[in-house]
Amino acid sequence: MLALVTGGNGMLAGDLVPILEDEGYEVLTCDIEDFDLCEEDAVREYILGAKPDLIIHTAGYTDVEQAEAEPELAMKVNGLGTKYVAQVAAELDVPLVYISSDYVFDGEKNVQYMPDDTPNPLNVYGKSKLVGEKYVQELCKKHYIVRTSWLYGTYGKNFVQTMLERKDVEEIKVVNDQIGSPTWTIDLAEGIITVLDMPYGTYHISGSGKCSWYEFACEIFSCVGAAVKVIPATSAEVPQKAKRPAFSSLKSSIKTKNWKESLKNYLYICDLEVD
Protein backbone atom coordinates (compact mmCIF):
# COMPACT_ATOMS: atom_id res chain seq x y z
CA MET A 1 0.00 0.00 0.00
CA LEU A 2 1.49 3.30 -1.10
CA ALA A 3 0.54 6.36 0.94
CA LEU A 4 1.22 9.75 -0.61
CA VAL A 5 1.73 12.50 1.98
CA THR A 6 1.61 16.06 0.68
CA GLY A 7 3.39 18.72 2.68
CA GLY A 8 6.24 16.32 3.27
CA ASN A 9 8.48 19.03 4.75
CA GLY A 10 5.82 20.10 7.24
CA MET A 11 5.41 19.61 10.97
CA LEU A 12 2.77 16.88 10.82
CA ALA A 13 4.44 14.87 8.07
CA GLY A 14 7.64 14.60 10.09
CA ASP A 15 5.85 12.46 12.68
CA LEU A 16 3.22 10.94 10.41
CA VAL A 17 5.59 9.28 7.93
CA PRO A 18 7.39 6.94 10.39
CA ILE A 19 4.07 5.99 11.99
CA LEU A 20 2.64 5.10 8.57
CA GLU A 21 5.75 3.05 7.84
CA ASP A 22 5.36 1.21 11.14
CA GLU A 23 1.81 0.36 10.01
CA GLY A 24 3.20 -1.29 6.88
CA TYR A 25 2.69 1.51 4.35
CA GLU A 26 5.20 2.44 1.73
CA VAL A 27 5.31 6.23 1.96
CA LEU A 28 5.99 8.83 -0.71
CA THR A 29 6.21 12.45 0.42
CA CYS A 30 5.99 15.52 -1.77
CA ASP A 31 6.22 19.27 -1.28
CA ILE A 32 6.59 22.52 -3.19
CA GLU A 33 9.78 21.34 -4.92
CA ASP A 34 7.82 18.50 -6.53
CA PHE A 35 4.85 20.46 -7.89
CA ASP A 36 2.91 23.68 -7.39
CA LEU A 37 -0.30 22.94 -5.53
CA CYS A 38 -1.94 25.88 -7.30
CA GLU A 39 -1.33 24.39 -10.76
CA GLU A 40 -4.05 21.86 -11.60
CA ASP A 41 -2.14 20.07 -14.35
CA ALA A 42 0.98 19.75 -12.20
CA VAL A 43 -1.02 18.27 -9.30
CA ARG A 44 -2.78 15.81 -11.57
CA GLU A 45 0.39 14.73 -13.40
CA TYR A 46 2.34 14.10 -10.21
CA ILE A 47 -0.33 12.18 -8.31
CA LEU A 48 -1.42 10.10 -11.30
CA GLY A 49 2.23 9.24 -11.88
CA ALA A 50 2.68 8.16 -8.27
CA LYS A 51 -0.48 5.98 -8.31
CA PRO A 52 -0.99 6.01 -4.52
CA ASP A 53 -3.45 3.78 -2.68
CA LEU A 54 -4.03 6.53 -0.10
CA ILE A 55 -3.51 10.30 -0.10
CA ILE A 56 -3.00 12.26 3.11
CA HIS A 57 -3.17 15.95 2.28
CA THR A 58 -1.26 17.82 4.98
CA ALA A 59 0.08 20.56 2.69
CA GLY A 60 -1.43 23.99 3.05
CA TYR A 61 -1.09 27.68 3.71
CA THR A 62 -0.80 27.73 7.51
CA ASP A 63 0.26 31.28 8.44
CA VAL A 64 -2.94 32.58 10.05
CA GLU A 65 -1.66 36.14 10.36
CA GLN A 66 -0.15 36.43 6.88
CA ALA A 67 -3.30 35.01 5.31
CA GLU A 68 -5.04 38.29 6.13
CA ALA A 69 -2.55 40.06 3.87
CA GLU A 70 -2.56 37.34 1.20
CA PRO A 71 -6.18 36.14 1.02
CA GLU A 72 -6.01 35.15 -2.64
CA LEU A 73 -2.92 33.01 -2.12
CA ALA A 74 -4.36 31.36 1.00
CA MET A 75 -7.54 30.55 -0.89
CA LYS A 76 -5.61 29.19 -3.88
CA VAL A 77 -3.48 26.88 -1.74
CA ASN A 78 -6.06 25.70 0.80
CA GLY A 79 -9.08 25.92 -1.47
CA LEU A 80 -8.19 25.29 -5.10
CA GLY A 81 -5.11 23.21 -4.24
CA THR A 82 -7.27 20.89 -2.17
CA LYS A 83 -9.81 20.78 -4.99
CA TYR A 84 -7.14 19.57 -7.41
CA VAL A 85 -5.97 16.88 -4.99
CA ALA A 86 -9.55 15.75 -4.36
CA GLN A 87 -10.24 15.49 -8.09
CA VAL A 88 -7.29 13.16 -8.62
CA ALA A 89 -8.16 11.08 -5.55
CA ALA A 90 -11.65 10.61 -7.01
CA GLU A 91 -10.20 9.72 -10.41
CA LEU A 92 -7.95 7.09 -8.83
CA ASP A 93 -10.79 6.01 -6.51
CA VAL A 94 -8.53 6.10 -3.45
CA PRO A 95 -9.19 7.48 0.07
CA LEU A 96 -8.23 11.06 0.77
CA VAL A 97 -7.45 12.42 4.25
CA TYR A 98 -7.69 16.22 4.44
CA ILE A 99 -6.29 18.00 7.50
CA SER A 100 -8.49 20.92 8.52
CA SER A 101 -8.70 23.28 11.48
CA ASP A 102 -10.63 24.39 14.53
CA TYR A 103 -10.59 27.86 12.97
CA VAL A 104 -13.50 26.88 10.72
CA PHE A 105 -15.65 27.68 13.80
CA ASP A 106 -16.59 31.11 15.17
CA GLY A 107 -16.18 30.34 18.89
CA GLU A 108 -19.73 31.30 19.82
CA LYS A 109 -20.72 27.83 21.08
CA ASN A 110 -18.73 27.87 24.36
CA VAL A 111 -18.80 24.07 24.61
CA GLN A 112 -16.57 21.70 22.68
CA TYR A 113 -17.29 21.58 18.97
CA MET A 114 -18.59 18.37 17.40
CA PRO A 115 -17.84 17.32 13.80
CA ASP A 116 -21.41 18.05 12.68
CA ASP A 117 -21.51 21.58 14.14
CA THR A 118 -21.98 24.33 11.57
CA PRO A 119 -18.73 26.09 10.59
CA ASN A 120 -18.57 29.88 10.49
CA PRO A 121 -14.92 30.99 10.20
CA LEU A 122 -13.82 34.42 11.39
CA ASN A 123 -10.54 34.77 9.50
CA VAL A 124 -9.14 34.19 6.02
CA TYR A 125 -7.25 31.08 7.06
CA GLY A 126 -10.38 29.46 8.49
CA LYS A 127 -12.40 30.40 5.42
CA SER A 128 -9.80 28.88 3.11
CA LYS A 129 -9.72 25.62 5.09
CA LEU A 130 -13.51 25.44 4.97
CA VAL A 131 -13.47 25.88 1.19
CA GLY A 132 -11.05 22.96 1.06
CA GLU A 133 -13.42 20.88 3.18
CA LYS A 134 -16.30 21.58 0.82
CA TYR A 135 -14.31 20.57 -2.24
CA VAL A 136 -13.30 17.31 -0.55
CA GLN A 137 -16.91 16.54 0.38
CA GLU A 138 -18.22 17.34 -3.09
CA LEU A 139 -15.56 15.71 -5.22
CA CYS A 140 -14.23 12.67 -3.35
CA LYS A 141 -16.65 10.16 -1.86
CA LYS A 142 -13.84 8.27 -0.12
CA HIS A 143 -12.79 11.07 2.19
CA TYR A 144 -11.78 11.74 5.77
CA ILE A 145 -11.84 15.35 6.88
CA VAL A 146 -9.77 15.57 10.06
CA ARG A 147 -9.98 18.81 12.02
CA THR A 148 -7.33 19.47 14.63
CA SER A 149 -6.29 22.39 16.83
CA TRP A 150 -3.33 24.22 18.34
CA LEU A 151 -0.87 21.82 16.76
CA TYR A 152 2.74 21.54 17.93
CA GLY A 153 5.57 19.16 17.19
CA THR A 154 9.26 18.71 16.55
CA TYR A 155 9.38 19.57 12.85
CA GLY A 156 7.92 23.07 12.58
CA LYS A 157 7.34 26.44 14.17
CA ASN A 158 4.66 26.34 16.85
CA PHE A 159 3.54 27.89 20.14
CA VAL A 160 5.52 25.52 22.36
CA GLN A 161 8.71 26.26 20.47
CA THR A 162 8.03 29.99 20.66
CA MET A 163 7.56 29.81 24.43
CA LEU A 164 10.70 27.71 24.91
CA GLU A 165 12.68 30.32 22.99
CA ARG A 166 11.52 32.86 25.61
CA LYS A 167 12.14 30.71 28.69
CA ASP A 168 14.95 32.97 29.88
CA VAL A 169 12.99 36.23 29.81
CA GLU A 170 11.64 37.75 33.02
CA GLU A 171 8.04 38.08 31.89
CA ILE A 172 5.78 37.53 28.92
CA LYS A 173 2.22 38.57 28.11
CA VAL A 174 -0.10 35.85 26.75
CA VAL A 175 -3.81 36.03 25.88
CA ASN A 176 -6.18 34.32 28.29
CA ASP A 177 -9.49 34.83 26.44
CA GLN A 178 -8.96 32.28 23.66
CA ILE A 179 -9.70 28.67 24.61
CA GLY A 180 -8.68 25.58 22.66
CA SER A 181 -7.22 22.08 22.80
CA PRO A 182 -3.44 21.75 22.29
CA THR A 183 -2.55 18.79 20.07
CA TRP A 184 0.79 17.01 19.66
CA THR A 185 1.61 15.94 16.10
CA ILE A 186 2.29 12.37 17.22
CA ASP A 187 -1.17 12.12 18.80
CA LEU A 188 -2.70 13.46 15.59
CA ALA A 189 -0.67 11.08 13.43
CA GLU A 190 -1.70 8.08 15.54
CA GLY A 191 -5.28 9.33 15.43
CA ILE A 192 -5.22 9.44 11.64
CA ILE A 193 -4.24 5.76 11.60
CA THR A 194 -7.22 5.00 13.85
CA VAL A 195 -9.62 7.01 11.69
CA LEU A 196 -8.56 5.09 8.57
CA ASP A 197 -10.41 2.07 10.00
CA MET A 198 -13.58 4.11 10.50
CA PRO A 199 -16.34 5.10 8.03
CA TYR A 200 -15.65 7.96 5.66
CA GLY A 201 -16.66 11.36 7.01
CA THR A 202 -15.58 14.26 9.20
CA TYR A 203 -13.68 13.74 12.46
CA HIS A 204 -12.02 15.78 15.17
CA ILE A 205 -8.63 14.77 16.57
CA SER A 206 -7.20 16.96 19.32
CA GLY A 207 -5.76 16.66 22.78
CA SER A 208 -8.38 16.01 25.42
CA GLY A 209 -9.29 18.84 27.73
CA LYS A 210 -8.99 22.54 27.03
CA CYS A 211 -7.07 25.62 28.16
CA SER A 212 -6.28 29.20 27.25
CA TRP A 213 -3.04 30.23 25.55
CA TYR A 214 -2.10 31.74 28.93
CA GLU A 215 -2.64 28.41 30.73
CA PHE A 216 -0.77 26.61 27.95
CA ALA A 217 2.22 28.93 28.36
CA CYS A 218 2.19 28.54 32.15
CA GLU A 219 2.24 24.75 31.80
CA ILE A 220 5.13 24.84 29.31
CA PHE A 221 7.29 26.98 31.59
CA SER A 222 6.33 24.92 34.63
CA CYS A 223 7.32 21.68 32.91
CA VAL A 224 10.82 22.92 32.10
CA GLY A 225 11.32 24.77 35.39
CA ALA A 226 11.49 28.21 33.79
CA ALA A 227 10.84 31.10 36.20
CA VAL A 228 9.02 33.24 33.66
CA LYS A 229 6.26 35.50 34.92
CA VAL A 230 3.32 34.94 32.55
CA ILE A 231 0.95 37.90 32.48
CA PRO A 232 -2.63 37.21 31.34
CA ALA A 233 -3.91 39.59 28.68
CA THR A 234 -7.00 40.05 26.56
CA SER A 235 -6.95 39.67 22.78
CA ALA A 236 -7.46 43.43 22.55
CA GLU A 237 -4.24 43.96 24.50
CA VAL A 238 -2.27 41.70 22.13
CA PRO A 239 -3.59 42.82 18.74
CA GLN A 240 -3.32 40.48 15.78
CA LYS A 241 -4.34 40.86 12.14
CA ALA A 242 -6.49 37.72 12.15
CA LYS A 243 -9.50 37.48 14.43
CA ARG A 244 -9.43 34.27 16.46
CA PRO A 245 -12.45 32.43 17.88
CA ALA A 246 -12.75 32.92 21.63
CA PHE A 247 -13.55 29.22 22.04
CA SER A 248 -12.43 26.61 19.51
CA SER A 249 -11.91 23.50 21.63
CA LEU A 250 -12.77 20.36 19.65
CA LYS A 251 -14.43 17.26 21.05
CA SER A 252 -12.11 14.56 19.77
CA SER A 253 -13.83 11.78 17.84
CA ILE A 254 -11.40 9.23 19.26
CA LYS A 255 -9.80 8.79 22.66
CA THR A 256 -6.70 10.96 23.04
CA LYS A 257 -4.32 11.82 25.86
CA ASN A 258 -4.90 14.87 28.03
CA TRP A 259 -3.06 17.83 26.58
CA LYS A 260 -0.86 18.19 29.69
CA GLU A 261 0.30 14.57 29.46
CA SER A 262 1.13 14.91 25.78
CA LEU A 263 3.01 18.15 26.38
CA LYS A 264 5.21 16.43 28.97
CA ASN A 265 5.83 13.52 26.59
CA TYR A 266 6.78 15.93 23.82
CA LEU A 267 9.19 17.87 26.02
CA TYR A 268 10.73 14.60 27.24
CA ILE A 269 11.52 13.35 23.73
CA CYS A 270 12.98 16.79 22.96
CA ASP A 271 15.51 16.03 25.74
CA LEU A 272 14.23 18.88 27.87
CA GLU A 273 14.22 18.41 31.62
CA VAL A 274 10.61 17.98 32.67
CA ASP A 275 9.48 18.67 36.22
Report on this model:
By secondary structure, the chain is of the alpha/beta class. It has a domain at about 1-160 and about 180-205 and about 250-255: NAD(P)-binding Rossmann-like Domain (Rossmann fold, 3-Layer(aba) Sandwich). It is built from nine helices and twelve strands. Helix 1 links the parallel strand 1 and strand 2. The N and C termini lie far apart (about 40 Å).
CATH superfamily annotation of the domain at 2-158 and 181-207 and 250-257 = NAD(P)-binding Rossmann-like Domain
Could you say which overall geometry the principal axes of the C-alpha atoms support?
A: globular
Name of the CATH class of the domain at 2-158 and 181-207 and 250-257: Alpha Beta
Please, how many helices? 9
Structural class: alpha/beta
- Main β-sheet: number of strands, strand sense, barrel status? 6 strands, parallel
| Helical proportion, percent range | 25-40%
Give start-end ranges of low-pLDDT stretches: none
In short:
The protein has a domain at 2-158 and 181-207 and 250-257: 3-Layer(aba) Sandwich (Rossmann fold).
Keywords:
Rossmann fold, 38% helix, two-stranded parallel sheet, alpha/beta, six-stranded parallel sheet, 275 residues, globular
How would you summarize the topology of this molecule?
Blueprint: E1 2-6, H1 11-22, E2 26-30, H2 40-50, E3 54-57, H3 64-67, H4 71-92, E4 96-101, H5 124-139, E5 143-148, E6 151-152, H6 159-165, E7 171-175, E8 179-180, E9 183-184, H7 185-195, E10 201-204, E11 211-212, H8 213-223, E12 229-233, H9 259-269
Parallel strand pairs: 1-2, 1-3, 3-4, 4-5, 5-10, 6-9, 7-12
Antiparallel strand pairs: 8-11
Helix pairs in contact: 1-7, 2-4, 4-5, 6-8
